[in-house]
Known about the structure:
The structure holds 2 protein chains of 2 kinds.
Chain A: H1 2-15, H2 23-37, H3 57-73, H4 88-116, H5 124-129, H6 134-143, H7 146-156, H8 159-174, H9 178-191, H10 199-211, E1 212-215, E2 218-221, H11 223-241, H12 248-255, H13 272-289, H14 321-341, H15 346-363, H16 372-383, H17 387-403, H18 411-436, H19 450-473, H20 482-516
Antiparallel strand pairs in A: 1-2
Chain B: H1 6-22, H2 37-50, H3 74-90, H4 106-134, H5 142-149, H6 152-162, H7 165-180, H8 184-197, H9 202-218, H10 225-252, H11 257-265, H12 281-288, H13 291-295
Amino acid sequence: MLWRIFASVTFGKLLFIPSYRSTDFEVHRNWLAITHSLPLNKWYIDDTSQWTLDYPPLFAWFEYILSWGALLFDPEMLKVNNLNYASQNTILFQRISVILTDIVYALGVQKCLYSFGNNQGGKVQKDAEKWFSSSTILAFLLLCNVGLFMVDHIHFQYNGFLTGILLLSVGSILQKENLKAAFWFSILLNLKHIYLYIAPVYAVYLLRSYCFDIQKSKMTFHFKRLIKLGVIVVTTFGFTYGPFVSQLQQVLSRLFPFENRGLCHAYWAPNFWALYNIVDKILAFLGHKLGWIDPLSKVTASMTGGLVQEFEHAILPSIGPKTTLVFTILAILPAVVILLKQPNQPRVFIRAIVLCAFASFLFGWHVHEKAILIVITPLTLLAVSSQEDCRLFMLLSITGHVSLFPLLFTPFENVLKIVVVLTYSLASYSFLSALHYDPKSKGTLLKFRSWERFFLYGLGFVALFESCIHSMVDPSGRLPFLPLMIMSVYCAVGIIYVWFSFVIGSLKTEKKISKQK
Amino acid sequence: MEVPYKLEVIALTTIIIKLGVSVFPYSGKNQPPKFGDYEAQRHWMEITVNLPIQDWYRNTTDNDLLYWGLDYPPLTAYQSYLTGSVAKKINQDYVKLHVSQGFENFDHQYFMRMSVLVSDCIFFVSALYFYIRSLKMSNKYKWVFFALSSHSGLTLIDYGHFQYNCVSLGLTLWAIIFVSQGKNVLAAIAFSAALNFKQMELYHAILLFAGFYLLASCQPKGSSLPSQLKNLVQIGAATVATFAIIWYPFLQIHDWLLQQVIVRLFIPFQRGIFEDYVANFWCTLNVVIKIKRLLNPTSITSGTIT
């Protein structure tokens, strides 16, 4: 069933090859060119194009391997000086590379299905073949995830491939293959360092549940296991960064460009700082109007100037990277708590990943809105097994996917994004309702709380405003960032609500279990 | 496991597939001087919006019939007029007389594709949706619904090549639905409309009308002759009335206008027994027996496909 779903979705993805591509398309073409045409020591130095290499070396190797395929399609794209080169064959090649690397995603989903298919875990194989079993629904929810579709196959990125490796790692944890999990996660970190967001979870879980062992109420520390983990991590990082040891400083400065990036991206990710920004703006506005502020002082902070520049807050204290780190660490604490208190339980591990990803998304420095996908994917795994998590998953996925709308703004994609998000949300809602709620009893549908329902109605309006209404009401474009700002702030409220509910839910179950002991 | 909203999800999925086909090029893209069916539809919008009704089917200085002259019945012309009026509001350049010939532009493609999607949803998808829903075991037919609403042939022609077959096919479907529900008068109106949109529906006409007459005369069983006659008259009147309303402007103006329109509708007869590539008997026969030359020694295959 999984492969049938994957095949169908692949055909669908092929249909969208000619659609809108963002600058990320040129970014990856440039990386193909750099890795293919330049020697290793120039990879992280070359700046012919403004889109310099800012992913870890393993991804550069990945692009290098791809570039050999590119030769078959159009060698011109591999010339470093061919900026913005986008022939038909180039487009075809790049799009197909994303579509094919999604096989890794399918393999990751498959690994997770083995553990999540059935609550009993036993007859998973049979279940996976049935039409509406929880395995099939999970496969559908993951493989057809509309956020991945919009970001990977239209905007253009390789998140499917990366999420696949994440799922291989998570799947290994679910099957108690801790060393494999460590291996896959190291690989993942060496492909895209954004996954540092959830690295603490791995560190705590592997230390607590793998290196420490409780048998007959006696805790033993397995030093050997720690060594094994260390070897895996060090070797992977060694192989990746080895060739670049002489330029380590340069590589790291490319990976972590703190100087050039502000608290928020040009389009504020819908996180806590978006709310902080809007409060600051409102206070500044009120301050002007009510005469609290000297009109000559520079109070108008431009936060969505279109460039990723630093800025200062007008009234509230300005936030720096260290502050965000503190907040993030505080927010990660619930994840750490449940990992320490309930060791060796893969389900708890997944909860911890969700909590940690949430924390990094909500309080991190210069978060991209696409990072919401890192929260949604693990939550999908939980959605098929618990009613509470299912409801939160629905809220998060709808809000998260709508928050990605500003990425696709051309006319076709405007219509497309509404249709695909609507379809995915309705399909998820239908399948999950059927899964969790007994049709014979009264409540056949997943029920949201009344304020959640109102939030969703409002979200629909915000989505329509962003895609169509704003351009009709303001054709000259006097306030180009208004819809983006509204979208950020509104979605931030929703996402913070889901986070809060999820934290409370996680700590409650933890309390319940510790009471039982 | 009872999954709610099945049909709605399927309908939305087929729309995604259709949108996917829409991003690809259309017939005649970037191919001057004649372009293709897309340009034909755009040209009809230009003609109907700018010229008076009596000139729509006539060869005048403003309307060169050799360049994609109107050869569908009036309902297509009215639909072109409606769509063209919307086009004019969005951007005058889409339908400026003469100047807009061969107009190709990304936004324009988006507009045209959306017009097909809207027509499709109003006529074709709606018919399928309501019919499947009305069946008692709609659960069983969900795949039928999917197969029909995503009908690859129709999708490729309408959303790819570019035409509006969904309107006439949709109206025919409604007619069939009405017949199955016993609402013969509505069926007659729907099918007459379909026929007046595209004369290709004549293919279905024989069966439908024969079916009608048979139904009208045999149903209900044991009913008296007067009631059967009543049914017949009702259907006949509905059909005639639909035709009359649609053709009214052309009936009003004399000066051989009606004849001109009919000539335009059946112009394919001038083109010979078959045209270009078509998977039918005559074309296949032609491989062995040169039937085209036998029937009309001077006919030349034209380059256009209807």
